[in-house]
């Protein structure tokens, strides 16, 4: 990994960038997204403190950078941790203008071919969405005027000046109301503008359906990418069973099935969201051969589009990790059993016995069944439905049944 103080000429760097790394590629399984903006490694000085955006864009090993975060929507406000220190307040708003970001976004896009997104939400987002669909649409129009295409006739505040991001990312951690209307309006505005290729992405947590983004992912909003957070949950990286062709709790297959059967965009890509360091994003960090096996397994699914990491400072503090991920993405996919559609009679405690049509691997229940606390049913769920002894599948809601 290059030092944050290393300066490379644009010409020599561009010559070294492989085509697959020139921004997001919908046909590639090697895309890498890394969040920037929160200085989560926590250094207050030195090379491991969060640096300006352009410092990282010179690295050709990743393609997409979501800027984290727009922390409020109705009365927009940004939080970029220490990088906000070099910005100035915009009168009449909660926003600030960042001259460095205006320059860096343009440089990252034009010189280094990076896809730059603005991530909305984050752990501190507390608005809970919108009180009505009309409020959601109005908010989307306002966000578009602030961060969408630049117009000299607009009076909207412009934190990034004349620079224009490549789209928006939704990273909501709790339930949000009327969000499909917000997402659809942003999608509509992006689709109507032909000045560039716009992207709409989401970062759901791995339990399916996601508590926050579920209504948007249920065939109501068209996303280009979902990078699922496979950490801090029972279905994360640490639930992966190495050497097994079937998985119980690690549920990338469920998200692949969502992409094929429920996504409004049939070409949506699903990316594997991972922590970039042992202390990043709570629990669930994996490295070495285990991570290589996980990536090889995920590559066996046709929706797989690459890896997302949290976050930039954690990544740069973990020497060699990025190169490992790049190498793993270049390896062959693992072999998995063929899937077949079957009609299964499933008994779920608390819910009347019903006939459920499910797509699951032929050996899904051949290794003892779903472990305690694992998912065993729910609308859209396609995994194994038989619990390991002595556990029973207990109904919680139409979306969720669990082995207890």
TrEMBL record:
Catalyzed reactions: Random endo-hydrolysis of N-acetyl-beta-D-glucosaminide (1->4)-beta-linkages in chitin and chitodextrins
Cleavable signal peptide: 1-22
Keyword Signal: yes
Domain GH18: 30-332
Pfam families: CBM_1 (PF00734), Glyco_hydro_18 (PF00704)
EC identifiers of the protein: 3.2.1.14
Statement: the UniProt record of this protein carries the keyword Signal: yes
InterPro entries: CBD, CBD_sf, Cts1-like, GH, Glyco_hydro18_cat, Glyco_hydro_18_chit_AS, Glycosyl_Hydrlase18_Chitinase
UniProt enzyme class: hydrolase
CDD domains cross-referenced by the UniProt entry: GH18_hevamine_XipI_class_III
Name of the protein in question: chitinase
């Amino acid at each position: 990994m290059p030092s944050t103080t290393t300066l490379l000429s644009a010409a020599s760097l561009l010559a070294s960038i492989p085509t697959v790394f020139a921004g997001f590629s919908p046909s590639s399984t090697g895309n890498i997204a890394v969040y920037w903006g929160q200085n989560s490694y926590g250094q207050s000085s030195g090379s491991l403190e969060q640096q300006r955006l352009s410092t990282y864009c010179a690295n050709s090993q990743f393609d997409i950078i979501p800027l984290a975060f727009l922390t409020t929507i109705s009365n927009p406000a940004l939080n970029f941790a220490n990088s906000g220190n070099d910005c100035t307040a915009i009168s009449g708003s909660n926003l600030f203008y960042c001259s460095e970001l205006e320059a860096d976004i343009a440089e990252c896009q034009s010189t280094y071919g990076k896809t730059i997104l603005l991530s909305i939400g984050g752990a501190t987002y507390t608005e809970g969405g919108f009180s009505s669909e009309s409020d959601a649409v109005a908010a989307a129009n306002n966000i578009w005027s602030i961060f969408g295409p630049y117009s000299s006739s607009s009076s909207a505040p412009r934190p990034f000046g004349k620079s224009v991001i490549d789209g928006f990312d939704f990273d909501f951690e709790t339930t949000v109301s009327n969000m499909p209307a917000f997402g659809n309006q942003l999608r509509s505005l992006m689709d109507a503008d032909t000045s560039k290729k716009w992207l709409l992405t989401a970062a759901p947590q791995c339990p399916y359906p996601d508590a926050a983004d579920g209504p948007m992912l249920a065939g109501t909003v068209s996303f280009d990418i979902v990078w699922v957070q496979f950490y801090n949950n029972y279905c994360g990286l640490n639930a992966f069973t190495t050497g097994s062709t079937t998985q119980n709790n690690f549920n990338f297959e469920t998200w692949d099935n969502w992409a094929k059967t429920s996504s409004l965009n049939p070409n949506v890509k699903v990316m594997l969201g991972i922590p970039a360091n042992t202390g990043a994003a709570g629990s669930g960090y994996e490295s070495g051969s285990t991570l290589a096996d996980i990536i090889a397994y995920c590559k066996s699914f046709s929706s797989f589009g690459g890896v997302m990491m949290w976050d930039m400072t954690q990544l740069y503090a973990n020497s060699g990790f990025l190169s490992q991920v790049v190498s793993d993405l270049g390896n062959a996919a693992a072999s998995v059993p063929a899937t077949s559609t079957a009609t299964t009679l499933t008994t779920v405690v608390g819910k009347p016995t019903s006939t459920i049509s499910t797509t699951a691997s032929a050996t899904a229940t051949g290794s003892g069944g779903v472990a305690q606390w694992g998912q065993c049913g729910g609308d859209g769920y396609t995994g194994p439905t038989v619990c390991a002894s002595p556990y029973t599948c207990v109904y919680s809601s139409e979306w969720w049944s669990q082995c207890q």
